[in-house]
Amino acid sequence: xxxxxxxxxxxxxxxxTRLLPVTKVLAKELLPVVDRPASQYVVEEASAAGIxxxxxVVSRSKDDIGRYFAPDARRLADRDTENxxxxxxxxxxxxxxxxxxxxxxxxxxxxxxxxxxxxxDEPCLVxxxxxxxxxxxxxxxQLLQVYAxxxxxxxxxxxxxxxxxxxxxxxxxxxxxxxxxxxSDLIEKPPPGTEPSDLAIIGRYVLPPEIFPIxxxxxxxxxxxxxxxxxxxxxxxxxxx
Length: 241
Prior knowledge:
The longest helix has 16 residues, at about 80-95. About 25% of the residues lie in helices and about 25% in strands. It is built from seven helices and eleven strands.
């Protein structure tokens, strides 16, 4: 029996240096996109896919994310203010939110590993909060549909122009069904001209619980970082969609 995915991990411990100086005092995940923070969009996406517990991986200096997603018990007399909080309040009635700490940025794989205790022996959805997009059904829901059908890890993919594909993690594999590939290999930022396909991994993953002991054994690479792609058991050919 395939265990339903009910927990999502959102890595958010990065320093946000490309958005300085504003990220000196504000987490980039709380920067507004139109009418709400980027991180709220991905929590809404996860909730729409059936996720009930959100786990943010944050640094010690980014407690503002936890505060933003904490229920507000204050009574607000201004009705217009109440209306503006209604969407967030409704979201927080559907999901619980907790934070775990990554003491130093050591790569996406390490960030996911920091959530091991909070996730437990369950599969989880991983969402990168700076990867926003629109789809119907939402991308996370599409990945969870594939996981429910196969019981294997699932990665979101995007077709990228060949001249730019070397900047991404890239898959090798074969197409199994429309828009679905069985993955035989993952290459993180391959040298130009060596890319096995034009399909890049983007910021959505469904991972089985076996990912955590695997990540704990992965050797750190360049810059002391543990990459998530280095821990994915691709020889078992998890599908990508």
